[in-house]
Amino acid sequence: MFSIILSTASRYLLPLMLIFSFFLFLRGHNEPGGGFVGGLVAAAAYALYLIANGIEEAKLLLRAEPIKLIALGLFFAIVSTFLSLMTGQDFMTGIWAKNEFPVIGKVGTPLLFDLGVYFLVLGIVLKIIFSLAEEDNK
Amino acid sequence: MSFLEIAVNISIIMIGLSLILIFIRLAIGPTIEDRIVALDLLAANAIGFVAVYAIQNKTTTFLDVGIIVALLAFLGTVAFAYYLERRTRK
């Protein structure tokens, strides 16, 4: 199945949904949102692109293997827990930077942990979706 | 009770009634197409309910929930249509 309407629409929807997922990710500490929902929305964006354009195009677009995204997410999460040990505080204590950045806001280890969750969820959902789509084509 | 509160209460009741009707269609729907359309309509009603709830509580954070439901419901309908077309072609 190839629909030129869906294919063209997915090309515009993909960046919009990725921006929205990043917005959800940044808002997540004190309001609804966070790394998990952000990752899910980003994965939904890629899933829509996959349905519209086929699995080969989607893999070309992602460039990285989903399993590497999972590893990257776990790496971020682990790094964020060990940073507090280096400063002499307890394990997993949140460390926040003094001054705020524009757009992003306060930066600290919880944000890094959330980034890890974001990549982990994105990687796992994409791994599942790609496996299902490949199984389908056989 | 202001006019807005009355309108919000009426719309909550009506959305609830329509959710019941959609669930009946989802349960008895003779063909799978009926059920897919009912699911899509369920998501649309959920978005309407979220919007009314946001008006009632005077918060804007719930509107983002509506956006996410809209995106995922669209994706779900597209995926259903994709598999439906594959099934009917075979």
Shape of chain A: elongated
Return the structural class of chain B.
mainly alpha
* Mean pLDDT score of chain A: 86
Total domain count of chain B: 1
> Helical stretch count of chain B?
3
* Main pleated sheet of chain A: none
| Run of helices and strands of chain A | HHHHH
Multimerization status: heterodimer
* Global structural class of chain A: mainly alpha
CATH architecture classification of chain B: Orthogonal Bundle
Q: What would you report as the Rg of chain B, rounded to the nearest angstrom?
A: 16 Å
Q: What count of domains describes the coordinates of chain A?
A: 1
Separation of the first and last Cα atoms of chain B: 59 Å
Give structural attributes.
A: 138 residues, mainly alpha, elongated, B: mainly alpha
Descriptive overview:
- The complex is a heterodimer of chains A (138) and B (90).
- Chain A has helices spanning 4-27, 35-53, 55-62, 66-86, 109-137.
- Chain A is mainly α and 138 residues long.
- In chain A, α2 runs parallel beside α5 and α4 (66-86) runs antiparallel to α5 (109-137).
- Chain B is mostly helical.
- In chain B, α1 packs antiparallel against α2 (32-57) and α2 (32-57) runs antiparallel to α3.
- The mean pLDDT of chain B is 90.
- At the A-B interface, α1 and α2 of A face α3 of B.
